[in-house]
Amino acid sequence: MSSVPAHARPSFEPVRNLILRAIAQGKATGVAVAVAHGGSIVWEQGFGWANREARLKATAHTPFTLASITKPFTATTLMALVAEGKLSLDDSANKYLTNSRIQGTNGNADTATVRLLGAHVSGLPTMYEGYDRGEANLALDADALISNYGRLAYSPRSCYEYSNIGFAALAVVASNLTGTDFGALMTQRVLTPLGLHDSFFNTSVARLRTGAARYDSLGNLIPYYTTSTPASGELYASAHDLARFAMFNMKNHVPGQAPFLDDHCVDELHKPVFVGPSGVATTFGWFTGHLKSGIPVIFKIGGQPGVATGLYMLPSENLACMVLTNRSDGRELCSEVCNQVLAGYLPEWQQPEETSGPPTSPFVVRPSFGGHWRGTLANDGAKMQAELNIDSSDLATLSLGDKPAARITGMQSEGVALTGVSVGLIDSPDSLRTGAKTLKIKLLPQEGKLVGRVIAVAGDPNVKNVMLPYVLTLNQIPR
Fold first, then answer.
1. Strand positions, DSSP E, 29-127
2. What's the CATH number for 1-357?
């Protein structure tokens, strides 16, 4: 039973003033917010500019880029196929991947299930790349992306690693089963049945002019771009539509929505898959946590250049809040707005953090890490010899190919993993093209080896950036 009466409604005026101040102070460009409670939308409003240059104001019906809030929509599209009997979430994803398959470099690829792909524990590493209009020819289709980057960095279920590649693979699974382009499939199976008329996938190019433009942290327009993994972040939706989506997830029967998933299927979307030390869990497309009283929270945030979004649902209270912004630095405003709204209903509200990973601590060398390691770094055509030396808790180096060893800085323990940062240029087409030389390392001990990934990073995350994953497998060399 809800602890918030259905008729209860706090004043939203302080939240309006918060948003208006942020816009007046140049800390926001466009903002849209919606609150759903008791099975209806109790507040929805837009503020500022959706597109300042076109003099298009933001409204509750303005489509904003959702960034990673796209992921729950992608998962719901797959769940519609489950409901139709076309697949099982606990089947190996490779069962449905025909032209390209996940490769089991550091784990058994057949145990990377559809469910694990959507819960960031399949063993696939993280990835991101944006392409402006002049680079559209550089973007790989999803099959080619999996072929180039679909290697397991870790054994499935062994650790949490946020993975856009997993959602690219889910899109291929869905398209292979239906013979339909993924954007069209999401529209057919999810957007249209739910009556989300403001929403569209990035392939609906003609509708882009109705959507919010994207701005950097200084309020400068960012030229239109697409990404390497559309199914993980390229849905556009309004605050109004996102509220309708939230009510569907809270099992409300909203007028104009077709019941294409039964309650069991909705529960499968929200069921914890991997629970982190903090108690925050990944699900098939979402994250879940609990307030101190035990009230469950289902949530997802999104962020990329020119985008910061947030959606929080408390199903037991039939309450949800969502905020959309078109600025790179909008994360703090999204949090403030959601926190003020939800604390107005539930004073105990505390926003959960979107990670199921362990906390970090200073690295302390252990026998499973110390010494000299040699192996291979691979992906995107690269197959380079790699050497790692860990001399102490604060001295380690990495060398790739015939290049000199570079020191690893900022070493931390992330649970049993070692993380750190080095520099170097990987001999692969994408790395050479982008000049990605900052190398972010994460390694786990596994069966006497060190396994994991190196993410080659370049660019400004407020405007345009790239994170390319390379899989690392190392064996210890006796001194």
1. 30-37, 40-51, 56-57, 64-65
2. 3.40.710.10
